[in-house]
Amino acid sequence: MDDVAARAEISKGTVYLYFTSKEEILAHLLLEGLELLLVQMADNGPSSLSSPEPALRKLAATYLQFCQSHPSYFRLIAAFDRGRFEEAITPELYQQVLDKSIQGLGLLAQTIEMGKEAGIFRVDDSWRAAGSTWAALNGVLVLMAHPLRRQMLRSDVETMFDATLDLVISGLKGLRKGTKKEESG
Predict the structure, then answer these.
(1) pTM here?
(2) For tag attachment on the chain, is the N or C end more exposed, with fewer CB atoms within 10 Å?
């Protein structure tokens, strides 16, 4: 809080007139970052392209670009559900963060659902598939944020991100569990 006050050139007491805790400040910064990400995703979302696979790739590229352009926001997004964040802010503020997060995942799920309806993606649950897609891509970004891991994997972020996206899309196009072809294989 001292750093926030110093940077804003106000007293620490004045900061507390607007925010009750550092977690509340972080929550508002998180909302700011999520809003920026949502605007970019909406501009590149499922309605921007008629084909689901290119739309999915464009959404993923938008997320990668956002993370690279706004690393501080990405770190907040990646870390917000660690620890006791929900307990440290008001339920209303937490709900706002949750709602914004769900909107982003919803765009991804909508794109996957379009692919499912077109017969391109073979998934039973588009929401769960969106969660798995996000987990894989987000995992790459978190993993590759560390120089040691980039060295271990002998890759850069973009290459690993693209390889993971290719694997995810291959999986989305794959067979559903329990289909005859899968059972006989």
Answers:
(1) 0.80
(2) C
Strand segments, DSSP code E, in the chain are none
Question: Cβ of 117: how many Cβ atoms within 10 Å?
Answer: 11
Distances (CA, A) of 147 to 74, 143, 162, 163: 17, 9, 18, 18
Total domains in the fold of the chain: 1
Provide the CATH number for the domain around residue 137.
Answer: 1.10.357.10
Please state, in angstroms and rounded to a whole number, the distance separating the CA atoms of residues 166 and 162.
Answer: 6
Closest by CA to 172, choosing from 62, 16, 60, is 60
In a domain, 185, yes or no: no
Contacts made by residues 177-185, CB under 8 angstroms, sequence distance 24+:
177/124
Q: What is the residue range of 46's domain?
A: 20-176
Whether the CB-CB separation of 94 and 86 falls below 8 Å is answered with yes
Asked if residue 137 belongs to a domain, the reply is: yes
Query: By three-state DSSP, how is residue 130 classified?
Result: helix
Identify residue 17 by its one-letter amino acid code. Answer: L
pLDDT band at 106 (very low <50, low <70, confident <90, very high): very high
101 domain residue, yes or no? yes
Angle, helices 22-43 vs 71-79, to 10°: value is 110
Residue 114 located in a structural domain? yes
